Amino acid sequence: MTSTENSTPVLAVPATSGRLRLPPVLRRYLRNPVSVAALIVFGLVLVFAFIGPLLWKYSYATFTPDNSRPPSLDHPFGTDSTGYDTLSQVMRGTQRSVQIALFVAVVATVLGSVVGAAAGYFGRLVDATLMRLVDLVLMFPSIAVAAVMAYVGRGSQTSWITIGLVLSALAWPIVARVVRSTVLVHASAEYVQAAKGLGASDAAIIARHLIPNASGTIMVAVTVLTSTAILSETALSYLGFGVQPPDTSLGLLVSEAQTALTTRPWVFYFPGAFIVLIALSASFIGDGLRMALDPRQAKGNR
Amino acid sequence: MLRYLLRRLAIAVPMLIVASFAMFMLVSLSGDPLSRFRSMDPPPPESSIRSMELELGLDRPLPERYVRWLLGVLHGDFGKSVVNVDIGQVLPGRLLISLRLIVIAIVVAAIVSIAVGVIGAVRQYGLIDNSLSVLVFVGMSLPLFWFAVMLKQWAISINRSSGRTILYTIGDGSQTGAHGLALLGFLALPTIALAVNIFASWSRYVRASMIEVLNTDYMRLARAKGLSRTQAVLRHGLRNALMPFVTVVALEFSSLVGGAVVTESVFQWRGMGDLLLNGIRNLDVHVVMAWLLVFATATILLNLLADLVYGLLDPRIRHARTF
Asked: What subcellular compartments does it reside in (chain B) (predicted)?
């Protein structure tokens, strides 16, 4: 707890001094039309999910008098058999799903980065212990653990946080491994020795030198995690172990609509298409970032 | 090699014990498996609930329950289930059903991902590679359950237009007594769904390692000595590019099993996935533990297999490890 509190102000320093490094990456990223398009789509999804419900005339919880209507001007995504407006349901579901996905991405990345950096920097016993822990978590069948834990936490008002925590607990080891291998390279570098010689504390070296140097890897991890988290959450909700009614998520909407595919296809296709849209834009953002951070690999064989 | 395998097993066993202990506690502490019976209306007699508690060992402290389970497993006894099924008896049948799906899906996905990955690497950033990349990214973002339900819908319309049932959308075929070739109708859709779900990320690995291999000196040498590009790729490139792929398959086994559980659920198969999900819903600790044991054993075997195949593909590793 204290180490993360300490690191926040310290982290702010390299951000300004790192300005020399950031623009080329950003410029390379913006040069790729696919990456830019993905970023715009993801931004639009966020607007749709968080601002959309404030503007749209129907709330996700109100029954409209229209049952099982196909898409029309009044209901662009149609309505379901009980009269819920599918557009407002999809907005609400997207909001929940994106919330959970971003929550998982942030929590798992922070935890994984701290553990990975500590393991790579301290080495020896710390490294061995932490990496065995990583192996142990990775050995668990994630679907079983996630289902058990989510099943226990069901029914509470904060169930989306429970699911977020469960998925984060299963996702951080992957980040830890990647960050550790990046940190290992830098831990023995001369500038780290110099910082040590000047009397910098271990926490300061990790926060000021090692984590910023691994920031590329970490940023890519965030986007990849967003994409996998949304797929895991919707799958869990589909199986009945995720978000519970009356709350809704994109997975739950698909699950409720699957029996009515022939009669009300719109109720089924819209939420699913939004899952694809979010996961796809997140992975294209990640891919663009990776290419921008490592132009050698991207242009290698052109 | 044998010593290496034994050492790997020696690490795996304590890890397995820690993992099973954690899982046992997780499920046992999640709630009372008999709450369903307690809340029944009219309530069952106190004595019968008491006898169920005794039978399941719920009256004993948790650590003791775990030790008794562990000792039982060593003697081939998986423990009592809350819903009164003999776990040891249903397990082989369930396992067979799920293995059929998983093995075929792995083979299909491996073939497709190697083809897609190699073609993508050879034609890097060409039109073919870019279109394949888009396809792969869509495959990675496609929710398995959504795609599987669409497949079902598509199969229903095929069946309808042909006038008979070619593709089955429900069940694994064991209830209707189908066997041999007749099973293909049941297997086709779930296999496609699962294979599409896993081939995408695998093909990215193949593509990345193939690109690396294509830039090596020995590939240039192979071309220089007169092999055509295709010959060089197939004879020298493929073997080296497939090495990381072998570990990826073992590493991604957990997500593969997750996908299989979802697939079985969509197609209402009564395999291992159904066993697990019902076990969790009933807080049936011994059923979940039996599932976990099968999963963990498969993971360990798969990792060993990956090491063995690695040795076969790369003589350097084979020799290094004999010492």
From this structure: Cell membrane
- Our measurement of the distance from residue B167's CA atom to the centroid of its chain's CA atoms, rounded to an integer in Å, reads 23
ipTM above 0.95, yes or no: no
Same domain, B60 and B184: no
Are residues A279 and B140, on separate chains, in Cβ contact within 8 Å? yes
Burial class (CB in 10 A: 0-12, 13-18, 19+), A99: middle
Q: What is the pLDDT along chain B (323 residues), one digit of tens a residue?
A: 677 778 777 877 888 888 888 888 888 877 777 777 777 777 777 777 777 777 777 777 888 888 888 888 888 777 777 777 788 888 888 898 888 889 999 999 999 998 898 888 888 888 888 888 888 989 888 998 889 888 888 888 887 887 776 677 776 666 666 666 667 777 888 899 999 988 888 888 888 888 888 888 888 888 888 888 888 888 888 887 787 777 788 778 888 888 999 999 888 888 888 888 888 888 888 888 888 888 888 888 888 887 777 777 776 665 554 43
Is B124's CB within 8 Å of A302's CB? yes
> CATH for A32-50+85-300?
1.10.3720.10
> Is B79 domain-assigned?
no
- Are B163 and B293 in a shared domain? yes
Shortest Cα–Cα distance, A73 to chain B (Å): 26
| Angstrom distance (rounded) from CA A88 to CA A75 | 9
Please answer whether residues A267 and A86 qualify as being in contact, where contact means their C-beta atoms are separated by less than 8 angstroms.
yes
How far apart CA B129 and CA B137 sit, in angstroms, is: 12
* The model's pTM: 0.82
Cα radius of gyration rounded to whole Å, chain B: 24
Is residue B81 domain-resident?
A: no
Which chain A residues are closer than 8 Å to B144 by Cβ?
Answer: 231, 235
Amino acid at A254: V
Residues B128 and B261 reside in one and the same domain: yes
Question: Per the CB < 8 Å rule, is B124 touching A227?
Answer: no
